[in-house]
Amino acid sequence: MSKKYVLIVDDxxxxxxxxxxxxxxxxxxVGKAYDGVEGEESIKQRRPDxxxxxxxxxxxxxxxxxxxxxxxxxxxxxxxxxxxAVGEAVSTTSYTHAQGMSxxxxxxxxxxVDSKTLVEAVESFFA
Amino acid sequence: MTKIKLRGLKLLxxxxxxxxxxxxxxxxxxxGICSPLALNKINLTFVSHAVLDQSGRxxxxxxxxxxxxxxxxxxxxxxxxxxxxxxFHGDMSTLSVFPHDQRPEVTGLLLHAxxxxxxxxxxxxxxxxxxxxxxxxxxxxxxxxTLFDAFEFPAYHSPSDWYAAYExxxxxxxxxxxxxxxKVVRIYDIVQQGELDLWSVVIGQKALxxxxxxxxxxxxxxxxxxxVVALLSSDNNLVFNFCFPGEQESQIREIFSxxxxxxxxxxxxxxxxxxxxxxxxxxxxxxxxxxVRALERGGVSLLAxxxxxxxxxxxxxxxxxxxxxxxxEATFQKSS
Lengths: 127, 336
What we know:
The complex is a heterodimer.
Chain A: E1 5-9, H1 13-25, E2 29-33, H2 36-45, E3 50-54, H3 62-71, E4 80-84, H4 97-101, E5 107-110, H5 115-124
Parallel strand pairs in A: 1-2, 1-3, 3-4, 4-5
Chain B: E1 4-5, E2 8-22, H1 28-39, E3 46-51, E4 58-65, H2 69-80, E5 85-98, H3 104-116, E6 123-126, E7 131-136, H4 140-150, E8 151-152, H5 159-166, H6 169-177, E9 189-203, H7 208-220, E10 227-232, E11 238-245, H8 249-260, E12 265-277, H9 287-297, E13 302-308, E14 311-317, H10 321-331
Parallel strand pairs in B: 1-8
Antiparallel strand pairs in B: 2-4, 2-5, 3-4, 3-13, 5-7, 6-7, 6-10, 9-11, 9-12, 10-11, 12-14, 13-14
Helix pairs in contact in B: 1-2, 1-9, 3-4, 3-7, 7-8, 9-10
């Protein structure tokens, strides 16, 4: 059976590296992208089985990319986990929960996300 | 020279760098530097530390926001009671390229490129993904152009493309992070890597081209370099610490001696690396202090440390690995 392919898109390169190591250890194949535009291009080249997507990124933020994917019939059914720092701990931001909920992502995980929660969330899509 | 394809470039501008040459005391980093800075809520955006000899004499370099630089230097001076030398360098930038994927040629090409343009390197530290270099703000624009000459960043055709995409991003993050500080510091994970050797070499700025060639030659042999720091000593030499797999000692010696001649090279065998990555580590005060205090309590002496982007990498003796992990797990909140 071929490995499930998870694409992680986040502009924190150390987070990408850590999540990549965790998911590879669980048997997933992992792609990396470091902003929304790069994530979009990566999806065009190879469709992921699951997308882990940060919100605040240069060039194109996670909300915009998620909304765009969900509006396109070719990519609508790619499951998306949004990693959002728009939580209780953050009081000063131009991003809002309302924006997030309107993107129709399958899962929202507030940052800081612990590795166990993220891996469990990824695994729940393939159970 | 062939360009290396990377994915990203980050810039932190208008910082300040403080370099402290410390007395023979393995705990000086915790007590003499990190503790007073944390108590004064000073965020360190970059830290590098290297032990110079068996007495524990060391050099530590750290960066803060520009406005906190002079005050930080004074705090460290006040705590060391005349036992060390503290140098202040204002108006510094941190440039980080990623991912390096433990390829020494990435650092090699970076050194080579900066030296070619005669840009003064003030320091280096690695994270699991990135290589960060410190240059003066006056030389930052030239350094960015140099990086675009040396590396290919597919997302950006030119430095101006990159500037356009990056504008405002750091300011937005800083606003957000300012409101976020937990009681127990959360981390994503602690990653261990053993069976390494820690190598050290001291060189002048003019020798950076040669050192760059050494690292590129190591890369051609597929040798991995998971850790690097470089610190500017008070006599303006750069103290480099690198980690390589222990099993590749003879190849490393051969390549160094063929490029560097008789430059003294020292090796500390059987060391391990620990990488601790947490949310917004680069944007909050007290994280490095929490880590070095935890290791001190666990009886673990640091041999080298690099703190940049959102990770801290520490090099310790391999025999201390279990104690170090235990001490860190007891201090930080980790759920897996």
